[in-house]
Amino acid sequence: MNRLSVAPMMDWTDRHCRYFHRLLAPHARLYTEMVTSAALVHGDRQRLLGFDDAEHPVALQLGGSDPQELAQAARIGADFGYDEINLNVGCPSNRVQSGRFGACLMHEPALVADCFTSMREAVTIPVTIKCRLGVDDQDEYADLQHFIETVAARGCGIFIVHARKAWLKGLSPKENREVPPLNYQRVYQLKRDFPALTILINGGIQSLAEVQTHLVHTDGVMLGRTAYHEPYRLAELEHALFGTPLPDRMALIRQMREYTERHLAEGGKLNHISRHLLGLFQGLPGARGWRRHLSENAHRDNADWGVVERSLAPIREPVRVPAA
Is residue 91 among the annotated active site residues? Predict the structure, then answer.
């Protein structure tokens, strides 16, 4: 069971972000950005799915609504070595709606059940569902209960629930992450009504106190934007939940050097990786200078590791005094 995980986030949780997050949280389960089943079946699989072995345990999130195509995509993901296949039933973007997948599938629990069945039969690794509380006019708990009941009847035992509804019309994807009110109690109720299922909670979670409260009522917590914008929070949660020693932030940057230089040697750009490091020193003296120098220089064609070293100049990390 994954007590701590990092949410799939479009344009953010790419392979470089996940490598960095793994250094921060050795026990957390990491998720890819959503990959559509059509893109995976017909596109560049190595570009879409390639990852570093250090990222394990890592889950592939798929978007789609064709059971056969999703089964094929799940099989491809399993062959690449992913530890879990997750079906997106929560993304509210226009692109997702036009393709009849993501959050709009909350309206079609029978289809989601068919998709799950096809995926589960195609692979031996776990297949999970990430969903919302509902969409548009689905205001009743009974709608969510029916959705979970329908899919669970096919054997799905793990649901990650973003504790907000999605509005498919009238709100942008960004607004859908912030405007619909959070309703954690509804997720807690799911766990009470379906005690045999593994229910993880997602949405607006920031602090250790919040995580500890949610773990009283659910089986696990998934962090999203907080994990990205303030990545050291992951290390603090890892320490609190699993007893892993808190890493030194400067040491974390040094640990990224070999990985980054390998990426540069393969023709990659520094900002492909450095953009994920910007929030590491959030709240510390010099953090703004770190972000500014890195942002202004990492995109340059000749940017190398020296840019990172020079960006560290403003940082004055507090010295931790060991407990007596």
Answer: yes
